[in-house]
Amino acid sequence: MNATSSRSPLSPRELVDEYFIENRTKLLEIAAFLDRLDRADPSYAARDFRMKAFAEALAGLSQSSGRVDYIQQLLSDPREVPLDALDRKSALGAYDRWSGEARR
Amino acid sequence: MKYIDHHAHMVSRTTDDYQQMSLSGCVAVTEPAFWAGWDRSHADGFEDYFRQLTDFEPKRAAQYHIQHYAWMAMNPKEADDRVLSKEVLKRIPNFLDRPTVLGIGEIGLNRVTRNEIETYTEHIELALAHKQLILIHTPHLEDKLKGTKISVDVLRSFPTLEPARVLVDHAEEHTLQMILDHGYWAGLTLYPQTKVSAQRAADIIERFGPDRICIAGACDWGPSDSMAVPRFIMELRRRKHPEALIHRLVFENPVEFLSQSARFRIRPERQETPTLAR
Known about the structure:
The complex is a heterodimer of chains A (104) and B (278).
Chain A: H1 12-40, H2 49-60, H3 67-75
Helix pairs in contact in A: 2-3
Chain B: E1 3-5, H1 15-23, E2 26-32, H2 43-62, E3 67-72, H3 82-91, E4 101-108, H4 114-129, E5 133-137, H5 144-156, E6 166-168, H6 176-181, E7 185-189, H7 198-208, E8 213-216, H8 228-238, H9 243-258
């Protein structure tokens, strides 16, 4: 089975009318989070793998389509082998493709 | 609208949640065995938990006219402990003949360790030996893609396992296709942060269609919402999707999957076949 090309019954104008304000809010929340982090330490984001992945994900928003799938893949552990031993209980939200660089 | 929440950890919720769910149309919940938020130290703790799931919760739910069903398992969050998991698995068959038990679940992987895979595999063997339905948890966040692939690979290593008797839960945009392609049911669980929102779940339905997909809230002791399925219903209505499509997703589909257990007592109430806009 392949993904269908179905769409919302709403027109493009109706989608914007319905969803613009709530997504404007989310956009400002992201901007405020990044500013907050900068105020704490402007160099920190470049050292934390989660924030590096976050920055790449933000750049992915400028794609013309497939943004969610791209970001899901970007944040995923691409390996296909299991861990030999349990390291921690919970996932962190992004895969550390830069491991070796300490999270400070 | 009547709905079924196929994944709700009601032992962690108050009676007020049952009342709200009933008021909003919930007619049945199914409760997979879960992690308590801390690791249990002995198999006796699981046995008491299984008694709570099969004795106490059905009575509590019935006060609000909700049918309560359960799934038996050692949750993936604790499944890395092979000594404890072997002991718990020995005790699970004692509960499989309870009148509200639908199958084995939620089983699967958490951090995707070799020990977790062994425990997961033994759960599948147990389900096959006792002819039980299976409900599978897939890992969260960055572990989901890898964990879902390996979970599906393990399922496929059992040639006698009927895919239609397995629901792979917590699917997202990047894992749904592989679940459906192999013939399994998929669950979308609506969570404030770590799973999918009602909006993204609606997007997924618009992209992939409604076949073999069920919707649940997966409410538990963490940030979660016992009203998640009604909010999903509202989201589809907000987009002007037909009522028949919504009914199929939140009622007919779970009835179709869960009715494969003779213990599930709700019968289909089919409406006209829904179509999606093109």
